[in-house]
Amino acid sequence: MAGEGDSEPGKSFKLLGFLDVKNVPCARESVLYGSLGSLVMGLGHFVATSRVRRSCDVAVGGFICTMLGYWFYCRYNLAQQRIRQRMLKEGMKNRILFEGSYLDPGKEQTGSERSDS
Amino acid sequence: MANHSQFGFQDASSPIMEELVEFHDHALMTALAICSLVLYLLTLMLTEKLSSSTVDAQEIELVWTILPAIVLIMLALPSLQILYMMDEINEPDLTLKAIGHQWYWTYEYTDFKDLTFDSYMTPTADLPLGHFRLLEVDHRVVVPMESPVRVIVTADDVLHSWAVPSLGVKTDAIPGRLNQTSFIASRPGVFYGQCSEICGANHSFMPIVVESAPLANFESWSSLLSS
To answer: Where in the numbering of this chain does the Cytochrome oxidase subunit II transmembrane region profile domain appear (chain B) (predicted)?
Structure first.
């Protein structure tokens, strides 16, 4: 499973020693957006309340929620894309198979004009 | 096949293996989130002064009951979905029997013709240049690509296991019992596996090689072999 735009496909970068963020789709973006969300929420809370300890808690919570939230969103879109790719592949295969025959969907409009093939 | 020092899965060559890899990624992401939280809590515990002023903790108890339940549901739902997907009966186009012996496999294609052959590992001394050591066999299992294939696995003597990681297949071969598995090879290629149940001195030397080819190629191969 190659990462997108990966200059060194053989290399991997494992976060905490087990999650390969380079080669797992959506992982890199999830962690980056999670970090950004954590920073924004933590800093925002600190600026609003000046409470360090609680802001750290909010930052960690924000990291987890943003990371998981983007992960589910990205994986859902990826799954939809894969289904569309499969349907397209199937459609192209059927188009090639049935082109010119009576099963060709493109010939439905002219079907009434033909009495026999 | 796996590269040296490979830690992760091989590239998926069947729809079920694709689903398994996606579920594995999902489980690892969940594990990352949990580990991050635990690391943070550990750091807090190590830097805070101890105090015994807490007498009532209804909120935290609610949180640490509800959150793990949510995590378990997040893991269980896709897991069960894949589990049931693996057991779907999908009207296979081809049925193949794999029989484990010490220390080789026998394959039988008895749907259309009586085609049976043994599959022994190619010894290293006889290996052509560029072929894979301890993985190549003299007769590969050829299957048509993009067709559901049913494999009935059994053994003749001791326990073996017929496994091809790239196809997401691993089935125990038990003497006196027929175990069934099925797969669809999504693309043409050669997929390697090894016996996965300890079966004696040469347990590591009875590999499995599945070659998936277009239907026309499969038909000409089976005609060639049975003539």
So the answer is: 1-90
